[in-house]
Amino acid sequence: MTTTELSPEQATTAAELVNASVRLAGKRIFTDVELTVGRGQFVAVLGPNGAGKSTLMRALLGLLPLQSGSVTVLGRPPAQARAAIGYLPQRHAFDSSTRIRGVDLVRLGLDGTRWGIPVALTTATRRRRKAESARIGEVIETVGATGYAHRAIGELSGGEQQRLLIAQALVRNPQLLILDEPLDSLDLPNQASVAALLRRICTSERVSVLLVAHDVNPLLGYLDQVIYMAGGHATSGSVEEVITSAKLSELYGTPIEVLRTTDGRLVVVGQPEAPHHHGDRHAHDHHEHDQP
Amino acid sequence: MFAHDFVRNAYLAGTFVALGCGVVGWFVVLRGQLFAGDALTHVAFVGAITAAVLGFDERIGLFVLTLAVAGGMAALGRRGQADDVVIGTVFAWILGIGVLLLAVLATSSEGGTGIAAANTLFGSIYSLSPGGSRLAAAVGLAVSAGVLLALRPLLLATLDSELAAVRGVPVRALGVGFLALLAVVTAESTQAVGALLLLGLLAAPAGAAHRLTASPSRGLALSGLIAVVAMWGGLALSYEVASLPPSSAIIGLAGAAYAAATLFSRTRRRSAGRG
Amino acid sequence: MSPSLSLNPVDDFNALTTYPFMVNALEAGTIIAVLAAVVGWYMVLRRQSFAGHTLSVMAFPGAAGAALAGLPTALGYYLACGAAAVFMRGGRSGSGLGSPGRGYGTETATIATVQTVGLAAGFLFLSLNNAVLGGTETLLFGTFLGVSRGQVLTLLLVAIAALAMVAAATRPLLLETIDPEGARARGLPVAALDLGFLLVLALAVAATSQITGALLVFALLVAPPAAAQQLTMRPGLGLVLSVVFALAVVWLGLGVAYFSIWPVGFYVTSFAFALYLAARLWHTTARRRHRGD
Q1: Chain A residues within 8 Å of chain C (Cβ atoms)
Q2: Do A292 and B215 lie within an 8 Å CB cutoff?
Q3: Are C100 and A101 an interchain contact pair (Cβ–Cβ within 8 Å)?
Q4: A108: which chain C residues are within 8 Å (Cβ-Cβ)?
């Protein structure tokens, strides 16, 4: 099965990388990556730790320059497309004593970058305020968080916080949603429900979804395309095409076996230990967190 | 220089007080309790004034109030720590009481309060008696020993309190005990370095050590070493330069060590990244 | 001078406002309350009380240094607080509310070092100038009842400037405070916002502590906003409550101090603390009641 045929309205791609390479702090993160994400597709970027998946996302957002090659998002250079992208970066969980409501967090997704005094003085601004509040309620409803959106975000569970963060990324009606390991810190039931939610959003809101994940299992059945990154290279196709013994062995340059369990899950065996790259996850984080 | 009694006393007390501060301080920084430490040092000052007003020996007031507040903070917080806001409000309130007591003191006695307050706030290491300096040294040594004895459980409890609890480490008790140690070293060091500057001896050598190494044993040793060297250097400098107060010199050196360590660790990281 | 409290509010208020020095004090107190309540609300949310306290203590080296260098005291305050803000920001290991970064590790060591080096310098300046500590009592505890008309005016201008800056950056600052990674992802200048806020805090502290003294500033920056945040999570309502609380505490403190021999500072901090405790209690019992049903 090849990638979903794009209908004429979807002729333009959501994101495209051609011959892209990125270098960070002198280390080559990935080279010669080619990928195309079609409009309305649900795509996962998989691969072991340190493979460069988050770096790839940052390159798509224009937060990192390419060493070579080109990147286009929604038909434009990444910096120009930023307004139409919803981005959910990797975050620490909110501190349990954080006294801010989920609904305020979502609202900040809408106007958090707006400088100026937040008082609605003219009728025009008041009308806009009303429309914004409606939109916020709507998007919170979409992610199913209406029940707890008015509680302190620090008190909520990981899955609940994640839903609100998804709402925050969706509130400006993006055409492309990029999520960096959204299922990472969730337990299995939550992984399943958040994955289902993202698929639903992809279809109902007509948003292209590109997400980075460690484990393909919660996403099986939803994916239109898989991009697998390892050893500084990437290969893309459907799940069945990419996650095969032959393909992965070629990617890693060493024998890999992919097995299917009786209930249909894929297991990758013989995956060599990927060297842990600090640059990937922590490039912008606190680097002085000394641990003996 | 060492021919003089008061100098020898100062060095004796100072060395072990600095050691105690360096060792305890390393953990205070790791546990994120510097603000609490700051509050405790100011509480020490208020304790001294309270004792003065009530007619007790200042040192009793120092110790009692500091230990009491430390206990309160430990009780109010989880795993023996307290919230940023709680510390701030309690702190501000205690300072308000200090204001009141100073006013009371000012009306009850004359002039002498200025000097006494200065000594409590900024230290008077050169006016320690032989007995006083021996006591200070003993306390500093005891506190250091206390921390080193509890090193591994304390480290585990600090870095991973859940694992520690599972392994049978009394996390909460350790937390309280640590704050008590902090209170003791605070109260004792107040006489040497003064309430306001004590925090510098707790923070700067430890901060420098944390920037330079991630290993606990090396960090503790480095922290203690930097603190002691700052103390010696400060005492020597202030002896040579009459107008330089000893506590200012000591803290100045400690601060310089921290700044140097920061710059060094930054350049080290930058050149490592470029390779 | 200790006029007696007649317990008739109107009479007392008239007695209070008879003297111009008292009117000045009330006006200054009002401006300070609003400024501290707004800037402090952010400070408490950002868990930067330690930095706030350090800034308030910088008044000491500022004044002592100015006296030594023959500069106007006010300049010394602003320079010292500003320098401290820059140094503290310089040592920061950028992490946000949502991570264990704040309060742990070397960031607080930087704040503590700046504080004590500043104090040590202040003590040095004082000794070099051969001054006795007694003169610095006003430094620590303020001259609320000796405020001049000119000082009130300067304070008003500074407050307007500081509040305008905070108002203009309300939403970006809020986003950066609670979700720094999200803010960064949306292209907000996180480092600039951090430094900018610290500088505004320094400005507020420098202007305020000339009148209220170094110790009192901190109480006003922490307690009313903390109390407000116990009662509500909404930013707008929280800011308003914070201002209301601060005004109440300052007016009450000034009013009571007028009729008593004890210092203003004591009353204001005690009322502020009591307010925080009450709010905390209310919050805890409201929580328990909510969980009960």
Answers
A1: 61, 63, 82, 87, 89-95, 98-101, 104-105, 108-109, 111-118, 152-153, 165, 168, 284-290
A2: yes
A3: no
A4: 171, 174-175, 178-179, 182
- What phi, psi does A71 have (nearest 5°)? -135, 130
Give the CATH number for residue C45: 1.10.3470.10
| Sign of the CA dihedral running C185, C189, C192, C195 | negative
Contact partners for chain A, using 3 or more CB pairs closer than 8 A, are: B, C
| Amino acid A283: pLDDT | 36
pLDDT reading at C239 higher than 90: yes
Of C103, C219, C262, the CB nearest to B92: C219
> Which tens digit of pLDDT belongs to each residue from A141-157?
999 999 999 988 888 88
In a domain, C88, yes or no: yes
Q: Residue A288, Cβ neighbours under 10 Å: how many?
A: 21
Instruction: For this complex, say whether ipTM is above 0.85.
Output: yes
In-domain check, residue B265: yes
Rounded to whole angstroms, the Cα distance separating C239 from A141 reads: 28
Q: Is C4 inside a domain boundary?
A: no
Q: Note down the domain range covering B168.
A: 5-269
Instruction: Write down the pLDDT at residue C165.
Output: 94
Average pLDDT over residues C226-251: 93
Residue B111 resides in a domain:
yes
With bands split at pLDDT 50, 70 and 90, how would you rate the model's confidence at A137? very high
Average pLDDT, chain B: 83
B161 found inside a domain: yes
Please give the share of chain A, as a percent, with pLDDT higher than 90: 19
* Residue range B2-7: mean pLDDT, rounded: 80
Determine whether the interchain pair B211/A288 forms a contact, defined as Cβ–Cβ distance below 8 Å: yes
Phi (first) and psi of residue A61, to 5 degrees: -85, -5
Structural domain including C95 reads 9-285
Distance of alpha carbon B136 from the chain centroid: 13
Please indicate, yes or no, if residue C1 is contained in any of the structural domains: no
Q: To the nearest whole angstrom, how far is the Cα of A143 from the nearest Cα of chain B? A: 33
| pLDDT at residue A251 is higher than 90 | no
Q: Which residues of A touch B (CB under 8 A)?
A: 25-26, 97, 287-288, 290-292
For chain C, positions 12-71, list CB contacts with chain A under 8 A: 45
- Selection from C178, C32, C212, C205 nearest residue C95 by Cα: C178
pLDDT at B271 over 90: no
**Which of C112, C141, C276 is nearest residue B199 as measured by Cβ atoms?**
C112
- Helical H segments across A42-157, by residue range: 53-60, 78-81, 102-111, 123-142
| Count of the separate structural domains present in chain B | 1
| Helix, strand or coil, per DSSP, at residue A176 | strand
Model confidence over B44-84: pLDDT tens digits?
888 887 887 777 777 777 788 888 888 877 766 654 455 77
Flag whether C125 is in a domain: yes
Cβ atoms within 10 Å of A80's Cβ, excluding its own: 12
Do the Cβ atoms of C49 and B262 come within 8 Å?
A: no
User: What predicted TM-score, i.e. pTM, was given to this entire model?
Assistant: 0.84
Q: How many CB atoms lie within 10 A of CB A65?
A: 9
Which range, A65-79, B167-181, C36-50, is most confident?
C36-50
| Domains of chain C: total | 1
pLDDT class for B114, splitting at 50, 70, 90? Answer: low
C115:B200 CB<8 A: yes
- Mean pLDDT (whole number) for A127-133: 89
- Using the predicted structure, report yes or no on whether residue B192 has a pLDDT greater than 70: yes
CATH of the domain at B136: 1.10.3470.10
Per the rule left: phi > 0, alpha: psi between -120 and 50, beta: everything else, A142 is: alpha
**A131: left (phi > 0), else alpha (psi -120 to 50), else beta?**
alpha
Is residue B70 in a domain?
yes
